[in-house]
Amino acid sequence: MRSVFREDHEMFRDQARRFVEREIEPHLEQWEKDGIVPKELWLKAGQAGLLCCCVPEEYGGPGGDYGHSAVMIEELARVNATAVGFTTHSEIVANYIVAYGTEEQKQQWLPGMVSGEIIGVLGLSEPGIGSDLRSMSTTIKRDGDHYVINGQKTFITNGGNADLVVTGGKLDSKDKHLSLVCVETSRAGFAKGKLLEKIGLKGQDTSELFFDDVRVPVDHRLGEENKGASYLFHQLAWERLIIAIRAAQCIESMLEETIQYVKDRKVFGKTVFDFQNTKFKLAEGKAQASMLRAFVDDCLKKVMAGELSPEEAAMAKLVGAEMQGKLLDEFLQLHGGYGFMSEYRVSRAWVDARVARIYGGTSEIMKEIISRKL
Ligand SMILES: Cc1cc2nc3c(=O)[nH]c(=O)nc-3n(C[C@H](O)[C@H](O)[C@H](O)COP(=O)(O)OP(=O)(O)OC[C@H]3O[C@@H](n4cnc5c(N)ncnc54)[C@H](O)[C@@H]3O)c2cc1C
After folding, report:
1. DSSP notation for 106-150
2. 368 CB within 6 A, ligand 1
3. What residue's CA is closest to ligand 1, atom 27?
4. Above pLDDT 70, what percent of the chain?
5. Cβ of residue 133 lying under 6 Å from some atom of ligand 1
6. DSSP secondary structure letter of residue 20
7. Could you tell me the CATH superfamily of domain 229-372?
8. Residue 362 CA: which ligand 1 atom is closest?
9. Is residue 157 lining ligand 1, measured as CB closer than 6 Å?
């Protein structure tokens, strides 16, 4: 057992793994064809107590901690279920509401998010900006006891299934400060764009969101006016660690699969594993994966203790995502032509992993963050 986890985390892992193997893994191929995961899956996951790990019991949640979140992220990554957007919903959007929501907001949305009836998304990126979030052009103008929202968001994970959007914008277009609001997708003036076609994460309903004079009561604001950027900054360390946790797990799972494959596959009268090149590639992979795991687990301990710094999270995300890209490419190579076939998990993991270097802040932005403290 890894020292970062307690016994209750490992018991939760058994439960999560059984669910993933029964309800998710057999359907991934179909969901990739559909470009979306059915809403029923969310309800089943809610019933099984697998959504919103950190939501306190008083709002219907399991009252867990980041350790439970990490277990769920790892179990999804183990089978490369990247299409299933539980993590954004459970470990990001719900956490924003827990951290900054009023009592009424928590009562209003968290129980439905825990049960899977309300699917949450974080809608920040716009067609004109992604890395530079402070340059957002969405406006959230005050009109009496309402806000009126205008703008467009893009690349939004779970956008197709979305019921509740935590979005950001400016109270005044000339403003530098961001504010966050919660918007139900049933509001007049709100529209979802088409599901975006992507090279990977094909089962993920990533989409555009449009706000055209969408009115929400002032009490839908999350936290204080103009404090949005500092909220984002606070949450980003954990969000980046999520990507590193996923990378570490994906590398380990694909390493195992590759070892199995090369030991079975015969070429020139011996197994592919018997070639020194294969053993060396796998040995390098094993060594690097072990180093990554040690650092990521250390970051996980720190986030659980409230001590993870933005630089450490950026290092974990940078190294994890880059390592994932490099190693999966080598694992795919060891599969020969079969590695290029969609039927083999390594091919899908390789293409899905490409986005890890882009979303949650690109590798270049991670280097910027790390270099600021040099
Ligand atoms: C599949 C997918 C899911 C996503 N899900 C969500 C979501 O749920 N919610 C959401 O809000 N967003 C989401 N995003 C958006 C994602 O966070 C952005 O794509 C990402 O932050 C990069 O922004 P951008 O695409 O605008 O690239 P840009 O910011 O335009 O960057 C272009 C290039 O310039 C480089 N660059 C930018 N600034 C610097 C700098 N200072 N120094 C050096 N190089 C720099 C970048 O590294 C990159 O190589 C998602 C994206 C994808 C692809």
Report:
1. HHHHHHHHHHTSS-EEEE--BTTBSS-GGG---EEEEETTEEEEE
2. yes
3. 130
4. 100
5. no
6. I
7. Butyryl-CoA Dehydrogenase, subunit A, domain 3 (1.20.140.10)
8. 47
9. yes
For residue 364, give the ligand 1 atom closest to its CA: 47
Q: What's the confidence (pLDDT) of residue 174?
A: 83
Alpha-carbon gap, residue 221 to 214, rounded angstroms: 13
The pLDDT of residue 203: 96
Tell whether the model's pLDDT for residue 173 goes beyond 90. no
Gap from CA of 353 to ligand 1 centroid (Å): 15
- Residue 363 Cα: closest atom of ligand 1: 47
Catalytic residues: 239
The structure tokens 């570490």 sit at 248
Q: Which two tokens stand for residue 291?
A: 């180093």
Q: Is the CB of 131 under 6 A from ligand 1?
A: yes
* pLDDT (tens digit per residue) in 63-82: 999 999 999 999 999 999 98
Q: Residue 330 pairs with which residues in a beta bridge?
A: none
Say how many Å lie between the CA of residue 126 and the centre of ligand 1. Answer: 10
**Range in 102-106, 169-173, 229-233, 308-312 the model is least confident about:** 169-173
Superfamily for 7-118?
Answer: Acyl-CoA dehydrogenase/oxidase, N-terminal domain (1.10.540.10)
For the record, the structure tokens of 129 come out as 């900006």
Q: pLDDT, tens digit, for every residue of 34-44?
A: 999 999 999 99
pLDDT at 175: 82
